[in-house]
Amino acid sequence: MPLPRSAATGKLKNRHGIAIVGAGLSGLTAAHFIAQWSNIPITIFESDSHPGGRVSTSQSPPGEHGARYLLGSELDVTPGTKYWRDYGLPDGRNIRALFRTLKVRVTRFGGKDWPRWCLLSPFRSMRLDPTGKNLLKDFRAAATLIGRLQSEMNPDNGKFKDWIKTSCLLEGKSLTIIKMILAGESCAPWTHLSTAYALECLASAVNANEKWFQIRGGSTALIDNLSRPFHERICWNSACTRVTTVSGDTVQVTYKNSRGLNRSYFDGAIVSSSDGDALTGQYTFRRHFHSYISMLFEFDAKPRLLKIPTADLCSGLYTDDRLVNYLELEDTKRSTRRWVFRILIPDAGKFLRWSDKDLETRCVKTLMRLGLNGKPLNAPSVKRWANGLPCGGTRRSYDRVSEKVYLCGDRYGRWPSMAAAIVSGARAAEALLSELEK
């Protein structure tokens, strides 16, 4: 439970208080709750010049490069319900209540099933049927299939690739559809995923009863509200290289900035960056990360793919193209440059080394073959995530890797999401404050 504001303060040995590594969503959430529950000083180390981590809202063109959606099942959990363990905050509130405190508003996305279009292998050769027979038009068919898969699933942690060999439901076109969706949802090769994690991702993506929400003003609005009280306590462009407990009472943070290599000492630390295992030297979380690339193209007129005219691109389109896995069109409601096309490249690997121009050329070429009715106005906004999404899920909210040092982030949770990052940061903050109080 939360500590009184005066708690733990009198037991501090080091005047710096608590170090938080990473000014992303999880780290800033941890800072928010520590400030709410105690008077302990906070110092945040951020390797970049701005907060946000994988939450990144582009201004030109407007759109989300990183996390974009929250599910109703994540926002509105209540004590005792199915997902309270996963998404309930330690102070007894849910995430929607936290947003109200932060004056962050969410709006329902669309009013349609999301997403509901898949384009199968003819996409590669571009031998498309203009009638749209190569599209999975009704996404509920996939939902029905995945529901059957879950009912057959043996609840172990075996590899999905091994499990599907025993399932007669996954073959041919069905298996291709599943691979396409998993690539977009996890950014990882489907062969890397556990059975339970793969089916969780699939069920979330095609659940016809799930509600999808977006943060009004972009996801960065949440980051701005969380980071505003701490701007004077954030060490920008400070890349941490090591976080370790050097005695029972002291945590040493080693970091690089324009002044060179530095060391500071704290009473505890929360590491929220994706390289947290390497920073602490405690490889308790044995999962790796898969990179991805996000690209935003803007148009004056609403773009259409003439060879698949029936597809509602605002609802999203999965493909089995190696580069262009997922497309989504957004109406920005502006008078000019109104439409923004987002393209997701999961498990980017070698594509991280491609120049922005090469990526643009390859993506536009693919879209033109599909009959894109127009050209993007300018060069796209491109964001590369070398440390992308973790490969797999967990029911843990954080790890205590050594005395008074905790790991948190969207690596924790049923799958990577903004909700998982928020809950992980809050629960790591509670655990560290409880340890300091002892």
Structural class: alpha/beta
What's the main sheet like?
A: 6 strands, mixed
Cα Rg: 22 Å
How many DSSP H or I helices?
13
Shape: globular
Assigned CATH superfamily of the largest domain: FAD/NAD(P)-binding domain
SSE arrangement:
Elements: E1 18-21, H1 25-37, E2 42-45, E3 57-59, E4 62-64, E5 69-71, H2 72-75, H3 84-87, H4 95-102, E6 106-108, E7 118-119, H5 122-125, H6 140-152, H7 160-163, H8 173-186, H9 195-206, E8 212-215, H10 220-227, E9 234-235, E10 239-247, E11 250-257, E12 260-266, E13 268-271, H11 276-280, E14 289-299, E15 317-319, E16 326-331, E17 339-346, H12 356-369, E18 381-390, E19 399-402, E20 405-407, H13 418-437
Kindly describe this structure.
By secondary structure, the protein is α/β, with parallel strands linked by helices. It has three domains: 9-105 and 216-287 and 392-437, 3-Layer(bba) Sandwich (FAD/NAD(P)-binding domain); 139-212, no CATH class; 289-390, Polyamine Oxidase, Chain A, domain 2 (Alpha-Beta Complex), CATH 3.90.660. Helix content is 28%, strand content 23%. The chain has 13 helices and 20 strands. A six-stranded mixed sheet has the order 9-2-1-13-20-19. The chain has a six-stranded mixed sheet with strand order 7-15-16-17-14-18, sandwiched between helices. Strand 11 (250-257) and strand 12 (260-266) form a beta hairpin. Helix 6 (140-152) runs antiparallel to helix 9. The radius of gyration is 22 Å and the shape is globular. The relative contact order is 0.20.
In short:
The chain has 438 residues and is an alpha/beta fold. The chain has 13 helices and 20 strands. The chain has helices at residues 25-37, 72-75, 84-87, 95-102, 122-125, 140-152, 160-163, 173-186, 195-206, 220-227, 276-280, 356-369, 418-437; strands at 18-21, 42-45, 57-59, 62-64, 69-71, 106-108, 118-119, 212-215, 234-235, 239-247, 250-257, 260-266, 268-271, 289-299, 317-319, 326-331, 339-346, 381-390, 399-402, 405-407.
